[in-house]
């Protein structure tokens, strides 16, 4: 006899898992993290959990198309099936080298995820997966196959089965089981089956051809036509219900040439290139988009500085306010929703929580504005990459047919971060500067995660990702930029100062030269990737300017981004007229008055313009400032109900005589004071509408200074992404979990010596039962011999468990022992030990 015995084939999934090493178990728990929440007590519980419907459905949804096709083929194969049978179902009678080459990988993936177990000679699909994927009348198989002959004839009378045998030229049998077996053997015999089909008329063969690729069910009348009768008499169509027939699986497989699928897809479709640009051009375009993104977010939050739109009762932004925001940003409404949601995801925007709740910038926005431009962009790009909130859904309807609003509830889609990472990783797999064909990207994603509906969420998320990445500057001209490549952790990100790539490496296939980026990064890895992205973007952005060009038509041209103090002051003193490569500001009486209201004097404004203009201050602009300043503050509005005071009583008389002042309810209290029935804010607006330049004053008579950035929300945290199921466990958790599972399995499966009178020496699964005296004596003896024992233990909460322990000391009603289950020394009260048994000799 050989000294090396072949290990016995596993009889269950639990035994198959028990034969795995720690690395294989870690791979299972990493690919199916729901199995580790909470940590199973032993491998039997792990196998049970791996076979639950919810867990199996989740695992199947994460298979690529060919791996799923492999599982579907196993579901229609015999149980168990051999590797050769499975290969025949996927490659057909003629064979397919691509299928043969890809099948080992697909089968390994199914084994790794515990969806398939057993050796190549006995492959078994877990029962729940077989129930989900096997054909049935209620749930047709994606293969288009129907039931087997045995399943379709289950309710057929024995006499009818014998009649079918006679019609196909087979001898009668004594029972239905052997008759069905003989019929099935005929249908799987290629030679005899070909002869049987050749004897059919053309009309009958056409009926079979219509059913061969599914659905396999058809309708017949009570008196079928002769060509249908020929099929029914020979069992090539079998009745399943009155008026309904089905094409047996064996017949369909013969007609298909042995293939379970019409078109196996062992190789993922390639991502095609639509256009190729110089990498420097891609990076420059992306940098321009990044700069525009920063400007758009700042413009949005500046517009909401003094309190933005009101929060809807159900939460979110009304469609009317979204339209106003889109007009203010000069973008379409879906794009405005994207910028609003991006600012919210980055923690720069939130509701203020007041009674009259409104949206406004957060204190974190002020800190963000002080960062360098590249770091500000990275903050936005990170928030976009990790956010589960999906702006593309805004304007759609939820499950209750309610409109989904920006900043409102029900916008989280947990698959969004994974899809964004994957789309960008596919772009990273192309040569630098290559823009993909959108349909090829979508086809690749559908292969990696086969869609269940015609227009599934992942497809829409991928489309939105491509457009949003371009808006944000992660891509330029459709191609992934160097900062974008670094952001997702893709290797070989090219520095923008480097020249065109050259050398032998460029001749390698793309998947060798630029491997895919990881689907997710750890916090430390993401921080390093973000720092690299900022470093690559910084030299691509123009340096902020400290000057503008003043023109005689009361405009100022900023030929590039401005330094923060200059931009802030110019934003108060003038209105933005147009944006683009250069920003045009226009000076108006209202904008100058706004600067004066903010506490600036005419001299301050003249000095500011002279210091920051590369051209002389035009005379019309100087006159405008002086004219507005001369009239500014002559009228003072304060709170009584409201009042107006002015040293020039003639001006007050002019106001009283103006018909437009009637709505303000003014009356003279003194030569230099008017009282009003309107509140101070309305009085200020009314007088300004009449062409005056009043200033608000405090109760002490001081001019109130209006600041544009006065309103901020209390400190707010950015919204947390909604996880897509349990998080993937890290290496530390995996190691601890596997150690606990192994130890628990040892305790539950360790054979023990039978107690006197016990006829079942292996009572696994039941707690040992011994009396207190016997338990104490056995423990004391084990302390002297150093042997391990198998005990049953009930903790303070009443939970029972089995453990393998090596007693060290017994005293005071407690036993101190090394617990193999917990891999540590523990102390147990003796009264909580239900019983004790010695381990069998072969388990030590």
TrEMBL record:
Residues 489-526, 746-771 are annotated as: Disordered. PROSITE patterns: WYL. Keywords: ATP-binding, Helicase, Hydrolase, Nucleotide-binding. GO terms for molecular function: helicase activity. Residues 774-836 form the WYL domain. Pfam families: Helicase_C_3, WYL. Residues 548-670 form the Helicase XPB/Ssl2 N-terminal domain. Residues 517-526 have a biased composition (Low complexity). This is Helicase-associated domain-containing protein.
